[in-house]
Amino acid sequence: MSIILDHVNYIYDEDTAMAHAALIDVCLNIPDGQFVGLIGHTGSGKSTLIQHMNGLEKPTSGCVFYNGQDINDPDYDKKSLRAKVGLVFQYPEHQLFETDCFKDVCFGPKNLGLPQKEVELRAYEALKQVGFDDEYFYQSPFDLSGGQKRRVAIAGVLAMKPEVLILDEPTAGLDPKGREDILGLIKKLHDEMGITIILVSHSMDDVANYVDRIIVMNKGRVAFDDVPTEVFKHYKELEEIGLAAPQVTYVMQELREAGFPVDTNVTTLDAAKIEILKAFGKC
Amino acid sequence: MLRDITLGQYYRTESVIHSLDPRVKLVATFVFIVSLFVANNFVGYVIAALFLAMCIYLSKVPPKFIFRGMKTIFFLLMITMVFNLFLTPGKELISIWKLTITYEGLKMAIMMAIRLMFLITGSSLMTLTTTPNNLTDGLEKLLRPLRLFKVPVHEISMMMSIALRFIPILMEETDKIMKAQMARGADFESGSIIKRAKSLVPLLVPLFISAFRRANDLAMAMEARCYKGGDGRTKMKPLIYQNRDRLAYLVIWAYLGIVIVLGRIL
Amino acid sequence: MKKMIKTDNLVFEYIRRDEEGNVEGITRAIDKVNLDVKPGEFIAILGHNGSGKSTLAKHFNALLYPTEGEVFVDGMNIEDDQHLWDIRQEAGMVFQNPDNQIIGQVVEEDVGFGPENMGVPTDEIWERVDESLKTVGMLQFRKSSPNHLSGGQKQRVSIAGVIAMHPKCIIFDEPTAMLDPNGRKDVIRAARALNQVENITIILITHYMEEVIYADRVFVMDKGHVEMTGTPREIFSQVDKLKDLRLGVPQVTLLAHELRKAGLPLPEGVLTREELVEELKKIKNKENN
Fold it and tell me: Do B167 and B7 form a contact (C-beta atoms < 8 A)?
């Protein structure tokens, strides 16, 4: 049970003067239940990559397999794939359209052709999962705050009961508390329901705190693919491609250079705290 | 990519025609269209063809770009020809069943076809050699006298140029919303016409909301930058006639004179 | 000394209406705000979404008018119609969405939009456009279409558009909220340079804590009023209070705070990596002695 990309290439505007490669020879295996961070600067191909995972884009060459089946096979049911591999776009609240929140969340399951009762049950569950209060269910989604709108939009995808949830920059534009809440929610979905999560993010601090694995995209290729501590060891190369390591990694590097006996493979605040306290013999 | 679609299919190169003042090109196109309807013999059309050929040559636009526009009007061309061919009364040439082709009809059909083709070619040449921006500027200045009749000329041209700026952005947005709704299982491609029309709601509602939000933001940004309508405004790129523009006007009016003399009186 | 911006008991209320247009109630978005900004200062306004910070900023450019109280820009009352265009010229504004504030279809034409509106003569418009694009490092893109630029580049074009109006003060209304980290850095760098080199007063509204550490003074807004005022160091010393206000502190500050709680004698309000390393070295040296 996994998503496998096998030598995927994708060329934009093929056969035109503007043709350029958006993905080059991408090979990935994302097993069930992982929490993956996907990073790369704007134009690195990460948005194109996630659209290949639920069949919104089709590779120019190479194959994408979901649970062992080629999703671009003409007989493959793409609609059910999109229910299993849920994709939450950037600023998902911009896709809300119904008169109330509950109806909007019903849109996904309804498209799957489920009976009305099941549709409503799923919508209810999904709204509860994102921590949405009953009193707001029948409010217009346009009257909500930014953070609340985003929850409704995420619920709209969750109501399709995905096995894999891909989120493109889910915290963009939110304030610190809003960011923390959404990331906490995503972590909860992963821990409690075992959903595979692919989190596209610009924030190294966020990624380092939550994920088991980081995939770094650069100019259409996979530049790094490993656990966070290993990826952030390459912080110099990351800087060259316009990215960086979490702040604490730099702190540890500088402390090490200043002669402190600390482990530099630290990517989270808690680990950094323990390392520094150890160095002072307080832990 | 969607963001590369531009209205009016401007062809970027440097030529005499490109560097002319947009007002000259607008007037020339108008004069050319008038000349097509003034001329009523084949000498007139030969002159028009020569004039057009000269302009195309000077513009350095590859002819295939110019004639691409022809495909879209092929249908219209056919219909006009058929109508003229069969419905013009006059001396009978051939008669099949109830349909009669007359000598006058044949002449009319050919003339209309030539007029239409020349008209499209001439106006495509204008849009190919003038940026949309330049075109709105030219229109604004040419139509300025209409302000006397309370026509908001400046506002109209500002609206046109804002539309030109936002069309690619909204196209890209449409693409994004469509994909996002497809990720929620929406289907835009199958089903009956009614079902398909209904399936557009999840696309159109967010699109309109976004367009309104953008309009609101833009209005605020324009106000913050001291925009207060056309009065008291200066231009960064004012339209000023150069010698080549004056010469071009001379050529155009001379051309019209020749067409009137040779195409109508002779 | 003349104040660049001064508010006096500023209140802004708007009327909420239901779908039929009946009045549902009145929301007080700004509640008795008193603040002043001196010429040449770099001010940051922090606050969570909905705290009123953007509404406040829109008063500085006469885009909104107070319900009660007064706002002065460079000594001019914003409600004085006679000064409206002077105020908008002196206090420029850069907005959040990079796409929705660019009017021109070519970069240089967009930068010229403000001066055109002000009636600046053509030759001078060209000079101003050149100089503004140079200031933000976008001169090589002058002939480009804005649609082909990245978010950070578009924001820099917007900044150039404001500079071309020769303002004394620029208000940045969450200019980095929609950008990636590189774009964010470029915009903040441009803002700091304008403050230091051109001596333009900067008011930066944001909820990215890292962007605030270079400000001279920080105002923290909550529920329409100014909840905290001080230097970045003073503000970031109060980690728990910031958390209550739905905000945070830069990661380094947070790390120092946590270490302090665990017993290391670190000062509160450590802002940068360098400071933290220095402070830790000091502690170590003391222990060794």
Answer: yes
